[in-house]
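agent> Task received from the user: take the single chain below, predict its 3D structure, and emit structure tokens. No templates, no multimer pairing.
agent> Plan: (1) validate residues, (2) run structure prediction, (3) serialize to tokens, (4) report one or two observations.
agent> Step 1 OK, no nonstandard residues flagged.
tool_call: predict_structure(input=
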Amino acid sequence: GCALPEFFICLGDFPQLDVGGRKQPDDRGFPAFGMVVLGIDVVTRISESETGGSTPIEMLEGEILTRPVTISKADRK
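)
tool_result: status=success, residues=77
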């Protein structure tokens, strides 16, 4: 099967995602590639949605939206 495109938005600091912060063999962390400049109210509403969606990734259990949200527009500035 084909994976759906997905991304996540961190609401706060997550040092465990920094280089050396995770307990993973590669110790490389995750790159940050953007920030919300407009629409944080929408992000907040999404973050308050039910999370019960399935995932094969153990560390994401309880973090996946039960009903996925479609992003209809995003801009690069």
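agent> Step 4: summary for the user.
The chain is about 10% helix and 0% strand.
agent> Done.
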